[in-house]
Specification:
The protein has 485 residues and is of the alpha/beta class. The protein is built from 9 helices and 24 strands. Helices cover 24% and strands 24% of the residues. The strands form 7 sheets. Strands 1, 2, 5, 6, 7, 8, 20 and 21 form an 8-stranded mixed sheet that branches. A 4-stranded parallel sheet has the order 14-11-10-18, with helices on one face. Strands 15-16-17 form a 3-stranded antiparallel sheet, with no helix packed on it. Strand 12 and strand 13 form a beta hairpin.
Length: 485
């Protein structure tokens, strides 16, 4: 019997566990480690953050699902990785520290034959002074953060109903943030909620972002074909902001969040600030603080992880100028080059470089989005990696045979812009490939046939339907496999 150990039970880790368990049968073991007791459909956190949904509508307990599947589940966090074992243990293992109330703080070692690192991001609020729910800004990154943000929004709305004017600042809280799409969704759901509660005239809405221009979304923007002409996502996005009366600040690195005021630096080196009554600013991500040691107990963390904590896989990490970036730089199998039984998926793998063009202010401050690794691509790469590992565990292959490069993969995204079954809307986007390929598509970097953007009520219905479909799948209910990643 061989053991597949999966670190993390988010979209990537949970998807890998479901597929691996369904294919391996009882001859092999699948084990999951996650510090969280709950599974969270993170894309719907933006609806928790406006009060449209409650935390219990976007979460469920993991333990009963894994018990049903026959997957041992450890509510714990991984603290160190030992891919060669050590002087007392010949097999590779991971040291974990329990986070459950019953065993909190206890340390245990879990051996493995294959390992999937799907630990997701560390929310690096400390990168910006004053950033975060424990300081001077709000977040929707977790369902707990989102619930806290909903309470603050409701308080702000009540002030408006009493006649006070409010300034709401929404966007990214550092020059190297990702997930602009989530902040975009939250912005327009707040705008919709203000209109629904008839206080829109009392609110000044301000978007702040590290994007070079609106519509970048960490993907370098995109061209779409509409009504017989080709336009850029910047035009599409600026039209929406103008139509909804939202001011915008781009090319901004947030330097400090004070109580009621946010200071930022722009690409041209200017130091500015904006006053606000409410601020929801997403943090930058880094890898979780996982250390690695060889058999002699020497620290080999730098051999497995990039300086930002994300795991090195089969990408080309050689530093090269923007003009020399190639689709082939991006990983295909997500296998560690040093230890062939280790893989990293979802946000846990290290991208070889950004997708958006990197920019630096005249003061030397990097101000550009880091690559998004959203739900659909994370699920697809997790499924392919699980399939590859299953083949190797069953002796059908000696190396990964399936590939899932972001430079050869398309994605669909539905960004909510207001939650209501009659008056809501959402931006529905498809893109192919995720990473632009200017060799194959020299004019636009992507295939116009498969790259599109449309806003309307139907998008809201589809997003709402997908909310329930993905929760159904994650609970491993009958026929869960018919729901795609």
């Amino acid at each position: 019997m061989a053991r597949l150990l999966i670190l993390g039970a988010g979209i990537a880790g949970h998807t890998a566990a479901l597929h691996a368990r369904s294919l391996l049968g009882s001859n092999h073991e699948v084990v999951v480690v996650s510090p969280n007791s709950q599974w969270n459909w993170i894309p719907s956190n933006i609806w928790v953050g406006t009060g449209y949904m409650k935390p219990e509508q976007v979460t469920f307990a993991l333990a009963p699902v894994y018990q049903k599947l026959g997957v041992p589940f450890y509510q714990a966090k991984a603290v160190s990785l030992h891919p060669e074992g050590d002087s007392r243990q010949s097999k590779p293992f991971v040291s974990i520290e329990y986070t459950s109330s019953e065993k909190r703080g206890q340390i245990e070692q879990l051996t493995y034959d294959y390992l999937i690192n799907a630990t997701g991001p560390k929310l690096n609020f400390d990168a910006t002074a004053g950033l975060g729910p424990e300081k001077n800004s709000l977040s929707v990154c977790t369902y707990g953060h989102a619930a806290q943000t909903a309470s603050a929004l409701e308080e702000s709305i009540q002030r408006m109903k009493r006649g006070e004017r409010q300034t709401l600042l929404i966007g990214t809280g550092h020059g190297n943030c990702t997930c602009q799409g989530a902040a975009f969704e939250y912005l327009f759901n707040v705008e919709f909620e203000l209109r629904r509660q008839r206080v829109r005239d009392k609110a000044r809405l301000v978007w702040i972002s590290n994007e070079a221009e609106l519509g970048d979304f960490g993907m370098g923007g995109m061209f779409i074909k509409r009504g017989g002409y080709i336009t850029h996502s910047r035009v599409f996005t600026e039209s929406l902001y103008t139509e909804r009366g939202v001011e915008w600040i781009t090319q901004a690195h947030v330097k400090e969040v004070l109580c009621g005021e946010t200071a930022y630096e722009t690409l041209d080196g200017e130091e500015k600030s904006v006053k606000h009554d409410f601020a929801m600013l997403l943090p930058p991500f880094s890898g979780v603080s996982l250390r690695a040691y060889n058999k002699a107990n020497e620290d080999i963390t730098s051999q497995l992880f990039a300086p930002n904590g994300f795991m090195l896989v089969d990408g080309d990490y050689a530093k090269k100028p923007y003009d020399e970036w190639k689709p082939e730089d991006w990983p295909e199998t997500y296998q560690s080059p040093k230890y062939k039984n280790i893989f990293a998926v979802g946000i846990a793998f290290a991208p070889p470089h950004p997708i958006s063009k990197p920019m630096t202010s005249v003061k030397g401050t990097p101000i550009f989005p880091t690559p998004p690794r959203t739900g659909m691509p994370s699920g697809v790469m997790a499924r392919q990696v699980a399939y590859n590992i299953v083949d190797m565990m069953k002796g059908k292959a000696s190396e990964p045979t399936r590939k899932a490069s972001l430079a050869r993969m398309g994605a669909a995204c539905i960004a909510s812009a207001g939650a209501n079954s009659l008056s809501g809307s959402a931006v529905s986007m498809t893109i192919y490939p995720i990473v632009p390929d200017f060799n194959t598509y020299p004019d636009t970097g992507r295939a116009l046939r498969y790259t599109s953007g449309e806003i309307g009520l139907a998008g809201h219905w589809i997003k709402h339907l997908l909310h329930f479909a993905f929760l159904y799948k994650a609970k491993a209910k009958p026929l869960w496999r018919v729901v795609p990643e």
